[in-house]
Structure formats: C-alpha cells, structure tokens
Amino acid sequence: MLFKKSMKSLSGLFTAKEDRLCFDGSFKLIVCLIQKMRFFSSTKTIKSEKGHFITIIPYEERYFTSLIHMYDTYNPLGSVQGLPPLDKDKRHQWVQDMISSGTNLLALYGDIIIGHASLFSMPVNWAEYFIFIHQDFQRQGIGTAITLYVIDWAKQESLSTIWLTVETKNYVAIALYRSVGFRRIGSSDGSWEMILTITKE
Predict the structure, then answer these.
(1) In this predicted model, what pLDDT tens digit does every residue of 13-50 receive, in sequence order?
(2) How many CA within 13 A on the CB side of residue 53?
C-alpha cells in the first residue's frame, strides 16, 4: 500500500480544513477511515483471453493463506514500486495491512487466487486503487475486468475520484488504466499519478 506517500504528494489538492480533519503531522489517518467504505458484495465470472473462467469475489478471511501464497510466488518480488516486499515477514505484514485497512477483491481460477485488488479511503470522497495479477495470468484481460468491476462499484458508492500511481516503465498497466478512463495528473520518483473522475450515468 502506498497510502502515506500518496497523501504527501496529494496534500495540495485538498483544503487545509480537510487536511486537519483527516491527518496529524505525520499524515496518519485520524478521521477519514472511521467512516470506511463498505465492502464489495457481489461476485462476477469472466472469461480470460486464454479461455480461463475467472471468478471475482469480495475478500473472505478463509482465503488469507491462499492470498499469502499468491504473493509468495509472485515473480519477480519487488518489481512494482518495490512491491511485493522481498522480505517474507514484511511481505506477509504488508498483505495483512491491506486486508485490515482496505476494501478488497480476489480473482480466483478454480480455488487458486490469481489476483488481488484493493481500494483505500482518502479525503473528500476519493479512493486509492491497487491491483496485482499473478504473472501466470497477466495480459489476459483479467486486470481490465477487475478494474471495470471496481469502477462500477465506485459509482454505486458515490465516490468522486479514484487515484493511483504506476511506474512510468509499466507500459501495460498504463495502457490498461488509460483504456478505462484514467488520466495522468503528475509524476514523481519514476511513477505517474493518475486519476479517474467518477461520473454517474
């Protein structure tokens, strides 16, 4: 999760009053996450470009060990903005932190977890978006399907904006995000900041 870094780079977009309500001097959450987003509630089955049937489900605690396994077998570790963490203990704590503080989705192939996405609350009705697809299932349209699911859910929850960061060299991810409506708003440390403004139909 990149939330602390996110808040430092985005602090100029929010008013001083909103910042005081949501953060102390260390950019730790005080109020905003008290009113956490609701959890995902529906499931969806898609067919990947290789013909695999993938089920997108809300996170359930019984899948925690399988989710850990997905990240333990991710290759290469540390390849996405330093994530997943190289150290095993740090990696497992990172996963636990995401589950504890985010609204989470899983992608299953049979009973194997092959993808994970999270939304994290931010000030003024924004959310940070985060997604990982296991390397054996990348470039099959699964990330796009999950992202579209998340966008649809965000509309129902009346979120105003989804924000993310992506490495400038991650051309596949950038193309995905642009294809569903994200636009670049800035860059720092070799990464782009992108947002999607939610519009109700």
Answers:
(1) 444 333 333 333 333 333 333 345 667 878 999 999 99
(2) 5
